[in-house]
């Protein structure tokens, strides 16, 4: 979310544009970093989600992608977000009554369920009619390009922070060669491009008591690699600590949770090629490194993209990601064996 504040009069005007005039409460909702999200309560008892899209996205592309994706999922009988109104930069969703989410996975069964949900989401979008979705953020998970942006931020050093993060920059430099692996394989056609979610955190799967689920936060649904989606699941769902944990002794990747992710994902992702399966374990390390690079880049650039709660917040996030990379590297042979077991 942004640091911007909104008056009740401003929010009321937006809601009136969507035909809602009986709201009784409009309050911040959720834990997302990027968009501004509000829960709307009304006298009728009907609830909505009101969201202002970040200026970091191409809003026209995003609107087109969201509407196409949700309409396609509905046409296949897949439960998805119900878009009630969309006038850039604002959009209105029906509230998912009866559905809940968690921010932190506390049981391997949750990891298995989430992995299966995202795999099923990819399956459902595999036959989306042409034209192809456009990238909302070009090269979003392109680690080579993320390193380029890091190099530029370090060279500019607009906040004078480069000298204090030389160890972090050295960490990235030692991994430059392997960071290009997936990008190179996709360029050669060895790994196919697919429609992917690109933000596969556990809290982007909403669950109902009857066992049904809804994949939410579709902003970054666009062309990409299935490995990026799985890798981000490993990054977030196998983490023993929060993304901004300051005590790095608490930060590591949990093997049981990794195995649950592999089991749940491979049970649903029947479309994977042998090359994709062979890189599932590596994808966790790659995406975790990539996110760490993004946090470090934003820190050097003056914290302009991710919302921060305190000075140095992005650097703390960078440290947790790099510690997770080290943990996955230490368990690499075990993680590869787990993938082979289920593949």
Strand/helix succession: HEEEHEEHHHHHEEEEHHHHHH
Largest sheet: 5 strands, antiparallel
Structural class assignment: alpha+beta
Describe the global form.
Answer: globular
Number of strands: 9
Low-confidence stretches: none
Instruction: Specify the helix fraction band.
Output: 40-55%
Number of helices: 13
Mean pLDDT: 94
Radius of gyration: 20 Å
Distance between the first and last residues' Cα: 38 Å
Q: Order of strands across the widest beta sheet? A: 1-2-3-5-4
How much of the polypeptide forms β-strand, as a percent range?
A: 5-15%
Description:
With 343 residues, this protein is α+β, with helices and mostly antiparallel strands. Helices cover 47% and strands 12% of the residues. The protein is built from 13 helices and 9 strands. The strands form 3 sheets. Strands 1-2-3-5-4 form a 5-stranded antiparallel sheet, with helices on both faces. Helix 3 packs antiparallel against helix 8. The longest helix has 22 residues. It is globular, with a radius of gyration of 20 Å. The model has no long low-confidence stretch (mean pLDDT 94).
Task: Describe the SSE topology.
Elements: H1 8-17, E1 23-28, E2 36-42, E3 48-52, H2 59-75, E4 83-87, E5 90-94, H3 108-125, H4 143-156, H5 166-173, H6 176-179, H7 181-187, E6 194-196, E7 205-207, E8 213-215, E9 222-224, H8 226-237, H9 255-268, H10 274-278, H11 280-301, H12 313-330, H13 332-342
Antiparallel strand pairs: 1-2, 2-3, 3-5, 4-5, 6-9, 7-8
Helix pairs in contact: 3-8, 3-9, 4-11, 8-9, 8-11, 9-13, 11-12
């Amino acid at each position: 979310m942004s640091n911007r504040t909104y008056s009740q009069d401003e929010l009321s005007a937006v809601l009136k544009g969507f035909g809602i005039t009986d709201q009784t409460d409009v309050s911040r909702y959720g834990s997302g970093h990027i968009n501004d999200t509000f829960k709307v309560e009304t006298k009728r008892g009907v609830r909505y989600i009101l969201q202002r899209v970040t200026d970091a996205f191409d809003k026209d592309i995003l609107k087109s992608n969201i509407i196409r994706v949700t309409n396609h999922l509905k046409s296949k009988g897949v439960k998805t977000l119900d878009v009630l109104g969309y006038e850039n930069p604002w959009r209105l969703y029906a509230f998912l009554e009866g559905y809940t989410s968690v921010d932190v996975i506390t049981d391997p069964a949750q990891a298995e369920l989430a992995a299966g949900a995202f795999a099923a989401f990819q399956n459902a979008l595999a036959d989306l009619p042409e034209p192809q979705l456009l990238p909302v953020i070009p090269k979003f998970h392109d680690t080579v390009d993320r390193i380029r942006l890091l190099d530029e931020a370090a060279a500019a050093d607009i906040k004078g922070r480069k000298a204090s993060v030389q160890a972090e920059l050295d960490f990235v430099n030692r991994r430059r060669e392997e960071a290009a692996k997936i990008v190179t394989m996709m360029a050669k056609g060895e790994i196919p491009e697919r429609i992917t979610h690109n933000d596969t955190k556990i809290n982007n799967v909403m669950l109902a008591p009857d066992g049904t689920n809804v994949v939410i936060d579709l902003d970054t649904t666009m062309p990409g690699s299935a490995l990026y989606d799985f890798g981000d699941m490993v990054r977030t769902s196998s983490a023993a600590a929060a993304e901004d944990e300051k005590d790095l002794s608490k930060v590591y990747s949990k093997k049981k949770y990794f195995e649950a992710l592999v089991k749940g994902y491979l049970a649903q992702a029947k479309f994977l090629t042998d090359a994709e399966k062979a890189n599932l374990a590596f994808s966790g390390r790659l995406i975790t490194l990539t996110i760490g690079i993004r946090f470090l880049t934003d820190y050097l650039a003056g914290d302009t993209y991710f919302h921060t709660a305190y000075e140095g917040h992005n650097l703390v996030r960078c440290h947790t990601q790099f510690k997770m990379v080290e943990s996955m590297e230490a368990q690499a042979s075990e993680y590869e064996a787990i993938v082979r077991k289920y593949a």
